[in-house]
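Module 6 notes. Inverse folding takes a fixed backbone as the condition and produces residue identities as the prediction. Think of it as a translation problem where the source language is geometry and the target language is the twenty amino acids. Below is one complete input and output pair. Work through it position by position during the lab.
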């Protein structure tokens, strides 16, 4: 799965300083640019399809996102970005 992304310059391999058997995938400048473009597009589309909500609804949503963040800590940044998008912070 990573080899095609490496071939087109989205990621690059980085060797571990501690273990010669380990290598890491690091996003490149090109990959970062594409990711930022995708994020911008996702935000624009979300603003088109997600209706405005009241302050009370956002308070409930913020509580739910906090709970989801505890359940899915590796995805918390995506939840936070989505919340910021629909609440008008982005």
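Target side of the pair, the amino acids:
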């Amino acid at each position: 799965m990573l080899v095609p992304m490496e071939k087109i310059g989205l990621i690059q391999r980085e060797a571990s300083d501690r273990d010669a058997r380990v290598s890491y995938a690091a996003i490149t400048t090109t990959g970062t640019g594409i990711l930022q473009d995708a994020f911008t597009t996702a935000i624009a589309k979300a603003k088109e399809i997600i209706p405005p909500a009241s302050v009370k609804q956002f308070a409930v949503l913020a509580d739910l996102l906090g709970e989801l963040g505890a359940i899915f800590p590796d995805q918390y940044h995506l939840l936070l970005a989505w919340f910021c998008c629909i609440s008008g912070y982005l």
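Reference fact for the lab report: The beta strands are 11-15, 23-27.
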